[in-house]
Amino acid sequence: MKNIRTAIIGAGYRGRYLITLLQKINLFDIIAVSDISPNLSEIISQLFAGEKIPKIYNSGTDDYRRMLNENTIDLVIIASPWHLHKEQTIEALKSGCHVAIEVKGALDIDEYPDIIHESRQNKKQVFPLENTLFRNDILAINNMIHAGIFGRLVFLQGGYRHDLTHILIDQTGNFGVQNGSESEWRSKYYKTENGDLYPTHGLAPLCMFLGINHTDYIKSITSFSTKPGLGLHACMAKRNGMKYTDIQQHTFRMGDVVTSILQTDSGAQINLLHDTTLPRPRSLNYEVQGTNGIWNAEKNAIYIDGLSPFEEWEPEDKYIEQYKHRFWQQWESEALRYDGHHQGMDYIMLRVLGEALQGRENYPATLEDMATWAAVSPYSKISIQKGTSIPFPHF
Amino acid sequence: MKNIRTAIIGAGYRGRYLITLLQKINLFDIIAVSDISPNLSEIISQLFAGEKIPKIYNSGTDDYRRMLNENTIDLVIIASPWHLHKEQTIEALKSGCHVAIEVKGALDIDEYPDIIHESRQNKKQVFPLENTLFRNDILAINNMIHAGIFGRLVFLQGGYRHDLTHILIDQTGNFGVQNGSESEWRSKYYKTENGDLYPTHGLAPLCMFLGINHTDYIKSITSFSTKPGLGLHACMAKRNGMKYTDIQQHTFRMGDVVTSILQTDSGAQINLLHDTTLPRPRSLNYEVQGTNGIWNAEKNAIYIDGLSPFEEWEPEDKYIEQYKHRFWQQWESEALRYDGHHQGMDYIMLRVLGEALQGRENYPATLEDMATWAAVSPYSKISIQKGTSIPFPHF
Fold it and tell me: Mutate which of A257, A264, A316 to test chain B, going by most B C-beta atoms within 10 A?
């Protein structure tokens, strides 16, 4: 079977990491890369030293369109800043390509519905690059759920708890430094939005566990925010020598912690957190609780009624090993060899993407799933603004 | 100084445990005990073997009134079933006694306001026996908070996550067994209520940390419930040989997991869980997150910006030791010797109660605090029923 002719849009930190993994999977040929960086040529030459160098497109933000026109492409992978995803995805679909897009929250309620429309119109697929779905523990827990080990699922927790102040604020206390990096485009949302900006890592596995969009549906969202700006102001003050007067000119809309309660048709509930401006170790806060047991990822522990010692957590390891997913049974050693930075999940994700495009596997999430996860962003903002529950959209 | 003449109402499991601790503290003289049990005489004789036997009152549910009339009592301790607390507390206050009451949720919105009225009317105090406030870790964390180590508090979590199915359902799957035990009176609430039945253990320390009723106030509550009865039905089926038809006659109103979001005037937020009918190890789910650090009790771990290694949890122990509260500095060894079952917190609580009554310490919670914690029960029910946020009462 012929390799997948692959083009990349966005060769920043994330795009380059994906390229290094794609090079290790003999299903993909990277034929072109687009990015506005003036250094793109050197970047790509270094990445492809000793290999066939892909064509590069870096003459401005529209040069990716020329790339789409000039080449025969099977798959476009998009890892650009958030506000460019929609246009680039739609252009790629119109050019007859499948698309794999990096995950993020929806910037408005129409973003993913419009992409769904184009995908159906052009009969091309869009694959969400949600790497958490490919974690060894997540896939094993999913197997356990389908084997009935946890009973019926009742209550799930997840979140994005990751202190981003090292991206948002520089070491002398300046907010949103204008250096062309992620700091520049990501920070502005903290001044203009209050909601869950980045829901997918915390939510996507929980939706897979619950069968959301298959056997159950999210029916409502209710979101809450702590007082805006407390963490950012405190961080700026710490880094600029406690000159509080200077920093009060910065007003923020984003609360440090946003809680979203998602209720499903079947009566299950997801509590989701967005927590990115307070100092803390990282966590995706996963917990899965059913009528027969519970998994808590923070504790790396499982409790199963009748199997575990009464009221005692067990280490998750033996269960994760016992219920290991076939993806990990097949590809674990190469995943860990090439993708130590993300514990193999990015490698497994791209491997499954390639297998799916060649018809040997089902990719475990659809564009409609992506639309569901991402909808938490705009609908959480509406819920916080209105102070009420909001009906959740179906896609 | 003369010892505190103490009378007990309720000599069940909890009341007897309190008696054994009071006997170890040379500030209290237990002069009378009231309970409806026909075996009260033997129970008390055993508990007080070799000591002065208190008078006993067990001629029916009103016999405690005779006890209040016939004796000169400084302090009445109430550890009876929930529905008796209000009447007994008010009678004790009217008799001129101080009262210490076991904690629980309010059975209706008037319960504690009425008690507050009587307490003020009679100029007698009511002390909530909330033992979590006296835990070594809780008191040390409180010291750290007041020393500014966590910065300004932003987001707190707590809960009562304790599988009570061994109380609510017997080993052959019968619900609410009629044997005069806790099963009988506690189980009925699961058929008639949907809300956080038992909020105080999860909430009281968080209110102390935030200065609720002193420098901040809870302004609203919004509560959510998973589908009622899933855990109870599954448990009954497991224990009765999976005869699902028999158990469907039992309808429950209580959701397995009730989430309450409490927002404060200052913009802080508490996420509180009630989770008592799914199999799991116990947890009070404490987490305290501020602008400078976070404590997670489930992980027994702390992270402080600038002190902890970047993004790495530290074991809490050294902090708990460094910020040990004076209660624990003074009484730790006797607390652990006499109260191993509750890691010393019940002993410390009763010791501080005695010291407070003799004017040497301030008890760290008031009747108004108890009213605040307990109000979560009726107001969570109203919020779930109405599907909206509800303004939270001040006392």
Answer: A257
